[in-house]
Amino acid sequence: MIITVKKNADQELVNQLIESFVQQGFQVNDSVGSDYHIIGLIGDTISLDDRMIKANPIVDAVTRIAAPYKKANRLFHPEDTIIDVDGIKIGGNEKIAIIGGPCSVESLDHILSLADKVKEAGACILRGGAYKPRTSPYAFQGLETEGILALVEAKKRTGLPIVSELMDSDQIDEFEKYVDIIQIGARNMQNFTLLKAVGKRTTKPILLKRGLANTIEEWIMSAEYIMANGNPNVILCERGIRTFEKYTRNTLDLSVIPIIKEKTHLPIIIDPSHATGNWKYIEKMSFAAIAAGADGLIIEVHEQPQCALSDGDQCLKPEKFKHLIEKARDIAKVIGRDL
Ligand code: PEP
Ligand code: MN
133 in ligand 1 pocket by Cβ < 6 Å? Predict the structure, then answer.
């Protein structure tokens, strides 16, 4: 960390600041030039609060050299993390994982029939929301426990592991018992109490979606919350961010793929359904995500999108989903991966 001290700062106050860093165990390099006075701190500065240092009246600026995250940082963990989901491996050079299913579980029959089709299309994991974060309190809120139990039946029938969104720490025991991947949705990406709870109370893989308007660093810091609290099994999921653009529901930020791979060792998957909000664009964006090195895709699928209880406009019909997977296989081959 580099601290720029104001010109003509009282030397007594500078000495006090330096002493406080020495007391905390840092090696301090004090360099006084003709125009600038800078203090370099060497040591583990992760828990230092830059804004607290900046509040000191003799400090002009504080520049962090190291990233504010450690557990997720590739610097300290050069090899890719590979997450094991009930035998299916996500990350590294493993097969690209295709996750498909409805936005919401709508009934037992509905999920059983769709699960067969999702499996037949070539997906390896089934998705389905049971606790839904809806903008309107009058919209379908999900079948809750009944939905989770229906997913369990679909797993028994197809063998596909299941992923579902957790909204409240009260649900952790239920998810720990029944669900293979716990999704933390975009709206809860910075629910720090929830992140701490899934860090402490489970080691199940967490699918951490990027928040609606969060930077990559904020997103990695949310992964860091889960990891620092004891759960190292985090899969990141880009699902588009809010921009001024109106032709898509969100803007799919595919640049996160190489960035996440450079900065962290965690797997990254792409959700082209929520990113585009339009079934017509899902296939093309899926191909682009695979070409850019994504470790997986999560796609909403419904037999009758016009009747879906949520997100029908961004659901692919099973035949289109199958077609997408077949074509995606060729793209994966070009970059040396399997699907
Ligand atoms: C979902 O997966 O159905 C969902 C609500 O996702 P997001 O949190 O990305 O909006
Ligand atoms: Mn949805």
Answer: yes
90: Cβ contacts below 8 Å, ≥ 6 apart: 82, 83, 97, 205, 235, 267, 269, 295, 296
pLDDT tens digits, one per residue of 103-134? 999 999 999 999 999 999 999 999 999 999 99
Of 167, 193, 163, nearest to 271 (Cα)?
163
Flag the least confident range among 32-36, 170-174, 259-263, 291-295: 32-36
pTM of the entire predicted model: 0.96
Q: Which of 62, 49, 64 is nearest to 5 (CA)?
A: 62
Q: Does ligand 1 lie within 6 Å of residue 129's CB atom?
A: yes
Tokens of 305: 């999108």
d(CA 62, CA 49): 10
The helix-helix angle for 108-121 and 145-158 (nearest 10°) equals 40
How does residue 271 score in pLDDT terms, banded at 50, 70 and 90?
very high
Task: Kindly provide the residue ranges of all beta strands, DSSP E only, lying in the chain, ordered along the sequence.
Answer: 2-5, 27-32, 37-42, 59-63, 83-85, 88-90, 97-101, 125-127, 162-165, 181-184, 206-209, 234-238, 268-270, 296-300
Q: What is the Cα–Cα distance from 167 to 309, expressed in whole angstroms?
A: 19
Q: In degrees, to the nearest 5, what angle opens at C-alpha 202 toward C-alphas 197 and 203?
A: 130
Region of 76 please: left (phi>0), alpha (psi -120 to 50) or beta.
alpha
- Alpha-carbon separation of residue 119 from 112, 154, 210, 259, 318 (angstroms): 11, 11, 27, 31, 10
Residue nearest to atom 3 of ligand 1 (CA): 103
**For ligand 1, is residue 186 a contact (CB within 6 Å)?**
yes
If you measure from the C-alpha of residue 66 to the centroid of ligand 1, how many angstroms do you get, rounded to a whole number?
32
With a 6 A CB cut-off, is 274 part of the ligand 1 pocket?
A: yes
pLDDT value at residue 27: 96
For residue 253, report the distance from its CA to the centre of ligand 2, in Å: 18
User: Are the C-beta atoms of 274 and 240 separated by less than 8 Å?
Assistant: yes
185 Cβ closer than 6 Å to some ligand 1 atom: yes
Residue among 101, 106, 105 at smallest CA distance from 119: 101
